[in-house]
Amino acid sequence: MGSYVAAIDQGTTSSRCALIDHHGAIVAMAQREHRQIYPQPGWVEHDPVEIRSNVTDVIGEALDQIDASPADISAVGVTNQRETTLLWSRKTGEPFGNAVVWQDVRTAELCRELGGDAGADRFRDQTGLPLATYFAGPKIRWLLDHDAELRARANDGDLAFGTMDTWVAWNLTGEHVTDVTNASRTLLMDLETLSWDDTLLDAVGVPRSLLPLIVPSSGVIAPSRDPLSDVLFAGILGDQQAALFGQACFDPGTAKNTYGTGCFLLLNTGEQAVRSENGMITTVAYQRTGEPAHYALEGSIAIAGAGVQWLRDNLRMIDSAEEITDLALEVEDNGGVYFVPAFSGLFAPWWRDDARGVITGLTRFANRSHLARAVLESTAFQSRDVLEAMEADSGVALSRLKVDGGMVVNDLLMQFQADMLDVDVVRPKINETTVLGAAYAAGLAVGFWESLDEIASHWEEDRTFTPEMDPADRELRYREWRKAVDRSMGWVE
Question: Which of 25, 326, 337, 450 has the greatest number of beta carbons closer than 10 A?
């Protein structure tokens, strides 16, 4: 058996490959960004050919960093940006146009049409999901409705659909597969049977012939091709489920929050799929071959780190994301300024595609430092919205929250998060939990790691942030935040 497991992380802004050893340490990491394509307001696309090339390149670069070869790799797993949708030819393997990214809102009118009199909850009992622009099924339908050639190819059986895990697997192995976590984000899979459902397919308008085979998250799928010749492809997890797995949240009641492009809070509910009454998503957390699926409640926030990118790239108030902390620390608080980043509508717990971003509370006193602080704080406020809804659904009041993702290196944000939630916020020593989750899923499937307990033993705490804010101050700020959220709604008629 080789000395490492490879993990491919095909994310919203970049593709990465990491090599992980038996102790759960990352010994090599390569990364390449890809373009963000905005054809018109509300539309977001990626070039799948560019991503395919980047994935190949980062695999080679990671191997080169430690002078390793495919023979040194025991297994490979993939984690991916979820819901991003693309179509390609089964005959040539070439995509038809760009991938439609999870943030894209072009399906808003279609989702309202599909909801009909039942509204956004039409498919929630079967799928755990609201009808929203976020999910993949309506994206497929939209693409077919707007391209007669694609519809004809679908009828001829030449068309293949995939989210990015499926695209990576297809190019690495030639197999057309997805795992239960990614399939659970399409509005096309039944949560109980873990299979494509004909009533859902007919209702959404997606031909079954397009769809990949649904497999467990941890299990051998096929040997890989170059540049990982004969390495067993053995794990697939959507990025947020991978972070839950990488944080060793294996027991019911454990939770993590990932602060990346968006922000995603997941609570493990065990083998029970808990239906939400408060705007949460019911999703598959993971499944190992031969075992029942584990489920999670999820609160999905569209804009977290992307708000900092907006401050940098659109307003040009900072030159790098790291500068936001120094700017925010120039003031003691937000000065009454609140920023609601509803660029693509509001996700959990509101699910309002008619919302748009607002900045409220501006006075002559406000300056760019207050705005920088408001951008950071918006992530913590949104996380409280989600956590309160999740606690109402689950009946579990969290006393600590594990965190990960690029933004958790920001001590100012993590302290404010602890203050706003009134719970301990715990940061791990290894923050790259998505790649760890993908590696653990693949490594377990081939015996590289023996058990979940062995994986849990690798997790180590870096720092715990303890609440310090006066309770009256906490509630005042949160009330003002909720007023700002109300102002963002109903903007699009």
Answer: 337
Average of per-residue pLDDT values in the chain: 92
Burial environment of residue 222 by CB neighbours within 10 A (0 to 12, 13 to 18, 19 or more): middle
* Nearest-angstrom CA–CA distance, 396 and 394: 5
Spatial separation of the C-alpha atoms in residues 414 and 410, rounded to whole Å: 6
How would you classify the pairing of strands 26-33 and 45-46? unpaired
Q: What is the rounded distance in angstroms from the CA atom of residue 330 to the CA atom of residue 339?
A: 18
Q: How far is CA 175 from CA 56, 168, 222, in A?
A: 17, 10, 8
Asked if the model's pLDDT at residue 76 lies above 90, the reply is yes
Q: Which residue in 305, 235, 165, 210 sits closest to 448, CA to CA?
A: 235
Q: Is there a contact between 183 and 166 (Cβ–Cβ < 8 Å)? A: no
**Cα–Cα distance measured from residue 113 to residue 117, given in angstroms and rounded to the nearest whole number:** 9
- pLDDT recorded at residue 283: 93
Three-class DSSP category at 73: strand
pTM: 0.86
Measured between alpha carbons, how far is 124 from 110 in angstroms, rounded to an integer? 17
The residues with which 87 forms a beta bridge, in sequence order, are: 161
Q: Which backbone phi and psi does 110 adopt, to 5 degrees?
A: -60, -40
